[in-house]
Design goal:
The chain is α/β, with parallel strands linked by helices. The protein has a single domain, classed as Alpha-Beta Barrel (TIM Barrel), CATH 3.20.20. Helices cover 43% and strands 16% of the residues. The chain contains 12 helices and 13 strands. The strands form 3 sheets. It has a 9-stranded parallel beta sheet with strand order 10-9-8-7-6-5-2-1-11. The protein has a two-stranded antiparallel ribbon with strand order 3-4. A two-stranded antiparallel sheet has the order 12-13. Helix 3 links the parallel strand 5 and strand 6. Helix 1 packs across helix 2.
């Protein structure tokens, strides 16, 4: 079946566009992807990426079948940037400010008034938004958080807003702008709250979920396989595959991406329970036409690409 990796980041600034293209084209060849969604991020835990959007557009030309989403810069007006990016060849815009570590850095998130005219503009003109809105609950427990989360600064103590607050902020945005075209990244971190995810999908017809793993997401879904299978069957046209790959797909980054794709393939493989790396997976069973929606068609529809 056709596959498209909707969620690939360009954040490794030491890697040239040409090197990035080599790694991503190699990934597409190995994994059988038709292309990738190149997601620019102006600021991450690794610092600022001032020319991320320019690099994304240049990279798009070198990776056949791909498209790119722009990243917002916080030192410029958001609406002006939306106009510029959407007229400049981008298919949408990525927002990372709902990640708690980004909230820590900037001191505000989507509740800030500067986002209101931006969301209103995107709702009016149908601008697709890929939004990171939270982090896994385990990141609020330093005794259980992974070493990688600690290294990246993704662990939060009692002085920080709780996970529930970030859900409330994002759901408040959806309530104020109900026609906003949104893909919530990483299943919106509702993997252990599928009932709530279903309620949001029913309430907001332009909402979809990007099911890019954090590895814990598919472990969580595997703990309730019957509920997960029913959810994926009902909303197969509202879920989008991605991997969170980096433009520097070498060493540990390549190995982690392979674990994520193996985990996703196992979850959708319909076989017996298994372990991928150190992660226990209980597969679900979906017909191929539903899987091709998840792996390919939904990304094209969300990005307004004719098929």
């Amino acid at each position: 079946m056709k596959k498209f990796d909707f969620h690939v980041h360009i954040t490794a600034e030491q890697i040239t566009v040409e090197q990035s293209a080599y790694y991503l084209n190699d990934m597409c060849a190995r994994k059988g992807y038709e292309g990738v969604g190149i997601i620019a991020a102006s600021h991450t835990s690794r610092g600022y990426h001032r020319d991320c959007n320019e690099k994304a557009l240049a990279l798009e030309k070198l990776v056949p079948g791909s498209f790119c989403f722009a990243g917002l810069h916080h030192d410029r007006d958001f609406v002006a940037q939306a106009e510029e990016y959407m007229s400049g060849g981008f298919r949408g815009i990525k927002l990372l400010n709902g990640k708690p570590s980004e909230y820590r850095h900037f001191g505000y998130g989507y509740e800030n008034e500067r986002y209101d005219p931006f969301f209103a503009y995107c709702e009016k003109y149908g601008v697709p938004l890929l939004i990171h809105n939270n982090d896994p609950l385990v990141h609020w427990d330093a005794t259980r958080a992974s070493e990688r989360a600690k290294k990246m600064g993704w662990v939060y103590d009692e002085t920080f807003p709780p996970q529930s607050w970030f859900f409330e902020v994002m759901e408040g945005v959806l309530a104020r702008y109900p026609r906003l075209k949104v893909a919530l990244a990483h299943l919106g971190f509702y993997d252990d709250r599928l009932d709530r995810a279903a309620e949001l999908l029913e309430a907001y017809p332009n909402l979809v979920f990007d099911i890019t793993p954090a590895t814990g997401i598919f472990v969580s879904l595997s703990q309730t396989p019957q509920q997960s299978e029913a959810f994926f069957k009902k909303y197969h046209d509202r879920l989008i595959f991605g991997t969170d790959a980096s433009n520097n797909l070498t060493g540990d980054a390549r190995a982690l991406n392979d674990v994520k794709t193996d985990m996703t393939d196992a979850f959708f493989g319909g076989g017996a329970p298994c372990t991928v790396g150190k992660y226990p997976i209980t597969p679900i069973h979906l017909p191929n036409e539903m899987l091709e929606d998840i792996y390919y068609h939904n990304a094209m529809r969300f990005a307004n690409i004719k098929q």
